Amino acid sequence: MSQGELGELLGLSFQQIQKYEKGVNRISAGLLSYIARILGVKIIYFYEGMELGLPGAQSRDPEEDRARLVMEFVSGTEGAQLNHAFMKIGRAKVRKRLLDLMKCLAQEESIERDQG
Asked: Fewer CB within 10 Å of terminal CB in the chain, N or C?
């Protein structure tokens, strides 16, 4: 598929697709998921060959750890589904409420874990 064809399907110019391909611009997780569907591949395809971290290995940079965890989550089925569903919510206020709910649930689980 050409950059122009992919751009057309995504509603983007081929120049924008070129920037994504060359790494000049970053691709959001939602867009990457959409591109994977268009190309008929699983999102993990884009991460093949990347080492996500060795068990017991410690990152030198906390930002690297956060990025690695995000990549692992987004490349998984639940992460991709959650991201796809979230991106379909058009109203910012609803997305904000959903984020607040998720934070609350995560905090509650953390408290339960610490207590028991």
From this structure: C
Q: What's 47's DSSP letter?
A: G
By CB neighbour count within 10 A (0-12 exposed, 13-18 middle, 19+ buried), where does 73 fall?
A: middle
Q: Is the dihedral of CA 34, 35, 41, 42 positive or negative?
A: negative
DSSP state letter for 45: G
User: Which residue did the predictor score with more confidence, 82 or 48?
Assistant: 82
Q: How far apart are the first and last CA of the chain?
A: 54
Sign of the CA dihedral running 75, 81, 86, 87: positive
pLDDT tens digits for range 53-104 = 544 445 456 677 777 777 777 777 888 888 888 888 999 999 999 999 989 9
CA distance 73 to 83: 10
Type and span of the H or E element at 31: helix 29-39
